[in-house]
Every structure is written in structure tokens, then in C-alpha cells.
Write a structure and sequence with these properties.
With 309 residues, this protein is an alpha/beta fold. The chain contains eight helices and ten strands. The strands form two sheets. An eight-stranded parallel sheet has the order 2-1-5-10-9-6-7-8, with helices on both faces. It has a two-stranded antiparallel sheet with strand order 3-4. Helix 5 links the parallel strand 6 and strand 7. The longest helix has 21 residues. It is globular, with a radius of gyration of 17 Å. The N and C termini lie close together (7 Å).
């Protein structure tokens, strides 16, 4: 079966302050990469604007209402000390990120496609129940997991996160929920300061931190020793992936030494795990990746693997 791409030109609309690494060019380079001829087989769907109420699957009413009320008519509203921000287009953009994620989950669970990549920005995995941080406003991957459970009746959903930064928001949301597995590789120490091996939730949190300077060998060891065996033991009915590419050796925000080939390998391993456990059902959502060349190479490798089915 085919691979779905959910995307929308509006993902280039969310503007950030000059010099900010989470910038519109991130979406533009992903879009340009996936317009190459070898990606012609992708099923392309533009991301819908989600009903704001679906964000309440994982965020509090107070948080959603306060964020909506904070929308500026002009200029910027700075959140979380200034790294995370809103401007007039942001509300629509982040709701399209949620909407594209839900469309991908729906299509994969309906059997219309084998797997899906959500090419959205800004990222989402740092957004906690009641806090925007780390460039993130809504936790797309968490909302997608809850949507799969509430609207498709799934009992067990796994989230794997290979962004260089730990997905503190996703961990916080599901920390006490044994029906959702959260497994992460990330650099430590590094923002946001969470992600120690000792953080285990109710046995559903598996952190495999990597050290500055680690490369593909360390990533593969973490996957083979912890991530993949944990997935098989959990037996998920759907695997969701926080696909951040800022562990790339060129990325300016961290110090890991991954290459595009490493991300391709990780993608293949997760696809194989999905085949073993949930009929290949896999949805990946773009998170970080702030060097444009590194991001383009990594997305190319990632989606090329998804297309192989």
C-alpha cells in the first residue's frame, strides 16, 4: 500500500523572530525535498484545520482557552520565556498540525494507506498538559494517540521519539497511563533536562539517553537493546513516531553525530516493528531539525524508507 503525506502551504506561515531556528524555511525545504520525482507515489492530502476541542484530549481546558485568547492581531506574543511564540497566523497553523496528524491516523487505521508522514511545523512534543515550551504549542503526537484510542477503539498505542531533545510534554501527558508507551532516544544533558533512564512512569516510559558526540552506533545500540524489545513486549496496535532530525551531525542545537542513513535505518526498524505488531500501521510526525541541508537529507531518507512499505 501507499504512503500518505499530509502537508499544507500554511505550515510556512507561522513566523518567528529573526534568527530563530524554528523558521518557515524548515517547511519549505521539506516540501521541496518531497516534490522530487521519486516521491511521486506519495498520496498527498492537505491538512485540515482541526476543531480546537480535540486538543483537549491531552491539554487542559484552561490551557486551550488561554492560548486561543492570546492570539495577537499583530506582532508576537511570547510564551515560555520567548523561545515559543504566537503571531496572527499561528493559531490556524498549529490547528492544521493537529488536523494533519488526525487525518494520518484515520487513513492508516482505515487501511487506506500503509503508513504516513505529517510534514507540519512548529513541532509539538515539548507541549505539556498546561504549558507551551520548546517552540511547541499543541502536542500533535499525543493528540493523535488519544484520537486513535477514543475514536478508533485502540487499547495500546506506542510513541517512539528520536528527536535530539527529549519529548518532555509527551512523557508528562502519558506518565501514568499504561495504555500508551513512550520510548525515546535523545541527547542528555540537553534541553529540556528530562529523559533520564530512571523516569519510568508506570512502566510505560522507556528513556535511552545518548551522550554528546554519540553517532549512529549508539543510536542502533539503544534501539536494539531497549526500544525495539520494549515495542515487541508492549504489542502496540499502532506506532506513532516523533520524527525529529536535529540529532543530525550538522544541526546547530545539539551535539549528536547522526547522518541521514541513521534516520533511514531507524525508520526501517520501526516499520519492521510495526509489521510484527500491528500490521505495519505507522504514523510519523515531523518534530525538530534546524539545519536545512541536514533536514532535507534526513526527510529524504525517512520518507524513502516509508515508501518501501
Amino acid at each position: 500500500m501507499a504512503t500518505l503525506l499530509t502537508h499544507h502551504p500554511a505550515f510556512a506561515d507561522h513566523r518567528t523572530t529573526p534568527g530563530h531556528p524554528e523558521r518557515p524555511d524548515r517547511y519549505r525545504v521539506v516540501e521541496a525535498t518531497l516534490r522530487q520525482e521519486r516521491f511521486d507515489r506519495l498520496v498527498r492530502v492537505e491538512a485540515n484545520i482541526a476543531d480546537p476541542d480535540v486538543t483537549r484530549y491531552v491539554h487542559s481546558n484552561r490551557y486551550v482557552d488561554t492560548l486561543e485568547a492570546a492570539r495577537p492581531a499583530e506582532g508576537y506574543v511570547l510564551l515560555d520565556g520567548g523561545d515559543t511564540m504566537m503571531e496572527p497566523s499561528t493559531w490556524e497553523v498549529v490547528l492544521r498540525g493537529v488536523g494533519g496528524t488526525l487525518q494520518a491516523v484515520d487513513a492508516v487505521l482505515a487501511g487506506d494507506v500503509q503508513n504516513a508522514f505529517v510534514a507540519s511545523r512548529p513541532p509539538g512534543h515539548h507541549a505539556e498538559t498546561e504549558r507551551a515550551m520548546g517552540f511547541c504549542l499543541f502536542n500533535n503526537i499525543g493528540i493523535g494517540a488519544r484520537h486513535a484510542q477514543r475514536n478508533h477503539g485502540l487499547g495500546r498505542v506506542a510513541i517512539v521519539d528520536f528527536d535530539v531533545h527529549h519529548g518532555n510534554g509527551t512523557q508528562e501527558i502519558f506518565y501514568s497511563d499504561p495504555s500508551v508507551l513512550y520510548a525515546s532516544t535523545h541527547q542528555m544533558p540537553l534541553f529540556p533536562g528530562t529523559g533520564a533512564v530512571s523516569e519510568t512512569g508506570v512502566g510505560n516510559i522507556v528513556n535511552s539517553p545518548l551522550s554528546p558526540g554519540d553517532g549512529g552506533t549508539a543510536l542502533r545500540e539503544a534501539f536494539e537493546a531497549r526500544i525495539l524489545p520494549t515495542l515487541d513486549a508492549f504489542r502496540p496496535e499502532l506506532i506513532l513516531v516523533s520524527a525529529g532530525f536535529d540529532a543530525h551531525e550538522r544541526d546547530p542545537l545539539a551535539s549528536l553525530e547522526m547522518t541521514a542513513d541513521d534516520f533511514g535505518w531507524a525508520t526501517r526498524m520501526l516499520m519492521d516493528a510495526a509489521e510484527r505488531n500491528c500490521d505495519g500501521r505507522l504514523v510519523t510526525v515531523l518534530e525538530g531539525g534546524y539545519d536545512l541541508r541536514g533536514l532535507a537529507e534526513s526527510v529524504d531518507a525517512h520518507v524513502s524508507e516509508l515508501q518501501k512499505g
